[in-house]
Design goal:
This protein has 241 residues and is α/β, with parallel strands linked by helices. The protein is 41% helix and 16% strand. The chain is built from nine helices and eight strands. Strand 3, helix 4 (96-103) and strand 4 (108-112) form a beta-alpha-beta unit. Helix 4 packs parallel to helix 5 (118-128). The protein is globular. The two termini are 13 Å apart.
Length: 241
């Protein structure tokens, strides 16, 4: 498994390096447009469906933050890359029966959208004796839309209170995904307002994870501290068997 052939003499490491450089340029330009320091924006490279060899290439290129969406794949990849000094972000939809297992390896869980996840996350972190950073995933979708996870904005204060009561979890901020198939700008403008209200009550929870391959510039514009980028760095996802 691993480097998927040499295409026109370009190694996989060169492909990844080129993709990473392009995305870093986009972040720098977006920060310039928003009058922000690029050092304020952390790139989380999403390695879902890509092999552990790609994670090693990324680490060689200086990437520290790696994101995964699916528990089984993430657990295996973290174990394969245990010798690397990486910060692992779990960014996918989370089942309560998998939450303790996810907290046993993830450093950051970005997709906490309901109170039922908090107890198992705390137990998993406690068993590992390792604190876990938590982001609350807020839904930007219209009410009642199927298929996208996320907590309703009005439910954030109650969810935040539950996280803050869990001893091994640190509430760091918010995460959101722009609605599918729509201009992300209005949704991200709403997110900026939601976040401004949230940090009044939670002044230490300043992280904002917003923006992906297609819309990272809009995330940077509204103050994202983290962008989650997969395909723009790594290319189109391999076909899953």
């Amino acid at each position: 498994a691993g480097r998927r052939g040499l295409e026109g003499g370009v190694s996989r490491a060169q492909e990844v390096a080129a993709g990473l450089a392009r995305v870093q340029r986009r972040i720098a330009e977006a920060c310039d447009d928003a009058d922000r320091d690029p050092a304020e924006v952390t790139l989380v490279v999403v390695t879902k469906f890509f092999p552990a060899t790609d994670v090693r290439i990324l680490a060689d290129l200086g990437v520290v933050h790696v994101g995964e969406n699916r528990h089984q794949e993430a657990e295996a990849k973290v174990a394969e890359c245990a010798d690397l000094a990486l910060t692992w972000h779990f960014i996918g939809g989370l089942q309560s029966n998998k939450a303790a297992a996810v907290a046993s390896y993830a450093d950051v869980v970005e997709s906490v959208d309901r109170a039922k996840l908090v107890g198992p996350l705390h137990r998993g972190a406690h068993a590992r004796d390792h604190r876990v950073d938590v982001l609350l995933q807020v839904s930007l979708d219209p009410p009642g839309r199927a298929g996208r996870s996320g907590c309703a904005p009005a439910a954030l204060p109650a969810l935040a209170a539950v996280v803050e009561e869990a001893g091994m979890l640190d509430l760091r901020g918010l995460m959101a995904v722009a609605p599918l198939g729509e201009d992300p700008r209005p949704a991200f403008d709403r997110l900026a307002e939601i976040r401004a209200e949230f940090v009044v009550d939670h002044p230490r929870a300043t992280w904002l994870s917003a923006g992906m391959s297609g819309d990272l510039e809009h995330g940077v514009r509204i103050g994202a501290t983290h962008v989650r980028v997969g395909s723009a760095v790594l290319g189109s996802r391999p076909q899953v068997q």
